[in-house]
Amino acid sequence: MTDISKEIIAPPRSFLSQDAIQLFYRLLAALLICAVLAVLSDSFLSLGNILNVLRQASLTFFIASGLTLVVLTAGLDLSVGANVALSACIAGTVIHKTGSPALGILTGLACGGIVGLLNGIMVTALRIPSFIATYGMLWVLNGLTYWYMAGETLHGFPAGFRQIGSGYLFGLPIPVYLLLVFLGIGTFFAQRTIWGQEIYAIGANPVAARLSGIPVARRLLLVYAVSGTMAGLASIIFLSRLNSAEADIGESLTLPAIAAVLIGGTSLFGGVGTVFGTFIGALILTLVLNGMNLLSVSANWQPLVTGIIVILAVWLDMKTRRRAQ
Amino acid sequence: MSDALPIEVTSPTPLFELRGISKEFPGVKALDDVSFAVYPGEVHMLLGENGAGKSSLMKVLCGAYRADAGEFYYNGERVAISSTADAQKLGIAVIFQEFSLVPYLDIAQNIFLGREPKGRIPGTIDRRRILADARRVLDTIGFDIDPSTTVDKLGVAQQQMVEIAKAISQNARILVMDEPTAALSDRETELLFALIARLKADGVSIVYISHRMAEVFALGDRITVLRDGRRIDGVRPADVTPDQLVRMMVGRNVDMTYPRHFADKPGDVLLEVKGLAAPTGISDINIEVRRGEIVGLCGLVGSGRSEVARAIFGADPVTSGEIIFDGKSISGEPDLAARRGIALIPESRKSEGLALLRSVSDNLVVSALRKLFPSGLFDQRSAQRTSDALIRQLRIATPSARQTVGLLSGGNQQKVVIGKWLAAGSKLFIFDEPTRGIDIGAKSEIFALIDRLVAEGAAALMISSEQVEICHVCDRAYVMREGRIAGHLTHNELTEENIVRLGMHHA
What we know:
Chain B: Its main location: membrane. Chain B: InterPro entries: AAA+_ATPase, ABC_carbohydrate_import_ATPase, ABC_transporter-like_ATP-bd, ABC_transporter-like_CS, P-loop_NTPase. Chain B: One of its GO terms (molecular function) is ATP hydrolysis activity. The structure holds 2 protein chains of 2 kinds. By secondary structure, chain A is mainly alpha-helical. Chain A is 74% helix and 2% strand. The radius of gyration of chain A is 21 Å and the shape is globular. Chain B is globular. Chain B is α/β, with parallel strands linked by helices. Helices cover 34% and strands 24% of the residues of chain B. At the A-B interface, helix 1, helix 9 and helix 10 of A face helix 10, helix 11, helix 15 and helix 16 of B.
């Protein structure tokens, strides 16, 4: 009875979903960068360099993957870098004191997770905007780490533990295997579980999500705890790879992780993005930095280039999405 | 549909005239050869269902859209409108439903925003003059308020007055109002009508968009009906009946009586609210809803109806009292109420009911995730199948379940909000103004749906400002006044007069 033709305001969506199209463009961009670098530099395509790129990208990805979930809920976690530092220092101390890497790993993950949970409590129970809550947490964690380390450096860990960050298995660095595992888990969690769906719904409209019966506070707690735990995981890999821990190792981690999330197509307004996109974001970021190193461009230019890529990626996203609507 | 005016008019030339206006968007012809004339000092009602082209016409009028074809005449002279500045120069002002006021500036600053009188020191504003000027404008529309009050302290009706004052201060001769009474109480509506009469007497012409039949006949001097982007007819209120107008709007016969299948005997008590009070200003609320019933919750806007709905659903905290649902006491967040079988269809669909950027399917299954996927594993295809079934059942007009829900019309968006609770298998549906901003065709579909729901053993609590709807649809109704239940009306007592009598303030 209703005249359907007049109610349709826009043509139907194309067969591929908007997310799939965005991912496709990103993969294309990554391949394009690879092609350019392969032409410009002989050493780019060497096995050693490619493995190096993957390993570097994986370190950024671990932090950025948990962060992606936070950003999907329209939040932000600025404390991830500081969290890595504190977790690494505490895990390192535990390994030194007990001699047990397993205990150290568990402590690192737990430390990261607890920090994340505290962030979540500030955001949900205290209703502090996540940007401010985690910004404050950043300072608190830095303060704790500096006080705890008192200028000391932890150095020298058991060979078995060091394998996690610098070892190889069938010719591939172990962090790359971890990357694949967590890429799979993250994608599965976000796309194929009802919790993941609820996280997208919260990011798209938190008020409607709550009035649709989604336990918003509990999901947010989970998301911040996951982000913290992933920072804890990253701390273990850093600790193992660097074979040392200092109070300041987290300082240069947060902003690149946010860059990977944004380049990967996750919207800071929430509800839009994928964990896989963040992986490609981390890859693009690493490829560009790697290429600049290979081409002997001064490291001083790297922040500038990163900034331009972030702005470009977000601008292109907004443009294509606007056109789609 | 011709250029010729269909009815003879007393005034020689129109103040403003559009001829043959067309406007096309990708995939749809929003306006198709629309002609439309406004005479000095008349109230010209613009009628049409959602999507008929009223908003597009309004935007062309105020210069926000550029027409693809057509001509404009002002006092018989051809003019061009290609920007909002052009429209403003011609004295055309639009009062949109969403006001364009700056909340933290005061009334005077809002009225003269961008046109502030300069002070003696360059770069400063003459504060004393701006207040005096604002005072004078407010006086001309009879709005007695201190112009230094900040706008965020004003109610909707008062903000609307400020918008009108702003338009008048710009020497507006044609005032376009988009459903100005949608968010007003009865008393505020009366004040607005008095103001409109005053403006008319001053020779201001008013183009008035409305969904309310009563207003059309109470206010209108002439009526233009749009449908599917075309002008269907121009008539005088005296020459038509409401039914005829509805037929023109929808192009088919619509039953305005919303048939109900009243149950002979209502079922068990599903919801019992005892002595409920909340910090939002409601107290001593006692309500009972049985299976198979549609129970109305009426009263003036601001009498606490929505607050009762939100408190039952757990969306607002409660200070005392008890809510017993299906035999068990409940208290907690909305997720608990939803799990137990309560559904809230909130007043503001766009901001509280839907994730506008997500797909129809995503929105339809969001409340039913746990029920559809008990293992916790989500499956897009299965979600899509569930959505397709709901789309068919509710006759949601959408090209597919993957369409972005924000692109649907208001009525179809409302069906999606209801659909998500059907998917969840809710037992009690709390509707807060379910037909606001929805065209007449979709309205009767939504009422038929509610009727079917309760016939199948669910129950509904329905808030509505449309007393006609309450009287037609509800088995009985509670009337609220100042945060309390002022009275209860059985089916036989349920008349508009009784609702108004119970809901009125005894000043």
